[in-house]
Design brief:
- Helices cover 0% and strands 53% of the residues.
- The protein is an all-beta fold.
- A hairpin with a 6-residue loop joins strand 5 and strand 6.
- The chain is globular.
- 30% of the residues are buried.
Length: 116
């Protein structure tokens, strides 16, 4: 079965960095686009970044452009989100997501808190 497991969240001061990782299993990883979403308290879940199956096409939400970098390792079945210049408004639970054969799958999420 499809499984996504995120890691790397934590508490960081404004301006700091974190690297999130998502380990995928149960599907042919290099065939599917991968996405990172986030959900802040009281807000809707929003798309943060997406990467195509080859890594050749990448898109970011305007709010994270220039600060976040998405990447993937098809040999290790992982997708990462490098987050630099973190701001308090980046505080949220971050989720890995994949759409496989018309069905969406979410990881359990990892909490990122940006606070001094």
């Amino acid at each position: 079965q499809v499984q996504l497991v995120e890691s790397g969240g934590g508490l960081v001061q404004p301006g700091g960095s974190l690297r999130l990782s998502c380990a995928a299993s149960g599907f042919t990883f290099n065939v599917y686009n991968m996405e990172w979403y986030r959900q802040a308290p009281g807000k809707e879940r929003e798309l943060v970044a997406s990467i195509s199956r080859s890594g050749g096409s990448i898109n970011y939400a305007d709010s994270v452009k220039g600060r976040f970098t998405i990447s993937r390792d098809n040999a290790k079945n992982t997708v990462a989100l490098q987050m630099n210049g973190l701001k308090p408004e980046d505080t949220a639970v971050y989720y890995c997501y994949v759409l496989v054969l018309g069905r969406g799958y979410w990881g359990q999420g990892t909490q990122v808190t940006v606070s001094s």
